[in-house]
Amino acid sequence: QVQLVESGGGLVQPGGSLRLSCVASGIMFGLYVMGWYRQTPGNQREMIATATTGGRTNYADSVKGRFTISRDNAKNTVYLQMNSLNPEDTAVYYCNADFTIGSTHFNYWGQGTQVTVST
Q1: Is the dihedral of CA 72, 32, 7, 79 positive or negative?
Q2: Distance between CA 49 and CA 47 in Å, rounded?
Q3: Calpha distance 114→60 (Å, rounded)
């Protein structure tokens, strides 16, 4: 039973901040690249940030300098700190876990959490 559960979404004013959390269960967390993605209706899911098993991070240009991904392997949790939010950040944010070595692939998604940036 693999489960990724996001939390922390909500309504925030432009310029504000939110921190999303994703708790994983049913996987060997330390073996997975963790990531945050977002999606708006009618659009493809967009990679926002990833963190490797060793904590190396990568960000989409649209959020670089504003968002920070981090992970706590002991707690099976990945976080996304979002600062300087703007209305264009409004989306459903999804947590992802990916294991890829050679031809072996495992990929899991959370249910998503809504982030709305608006006055």
Answers
A1: positive
A2: 6
A3: 19
* Average pLDDT, 10 consecutive residues per value, the chain (119 residues): 97 98 97 98 96 94 98 96 98 98 96 97
Helix, strand, coil percentages (3-state) for the chain, rounded to 5, are 10, 55, 35
Q: Give every CB contact of residue 84 below 8 A, 6+ residues apart in sequence.
A: 15, 17, 66
> Which residue spans within 31-89 are E strands per DSSP?
33-39, 46-51, 57-59, 67-72, 77-82
Structure tokens at 96: 């992802």
Q: Which pLDDT belongs to residue 66? A: 98
Mapping DSSP to helix (H, G, I), strand (E, B) and coil, where does residue 28 land? coil
CB atoms within 10 A of CB 114: 12
User: What is the end-to-end Cα distance of the chain in Å, rounded?
Assistant: 39
Residues 6+ apart with CB under 8 A from 76: 23, 24, 25, 29
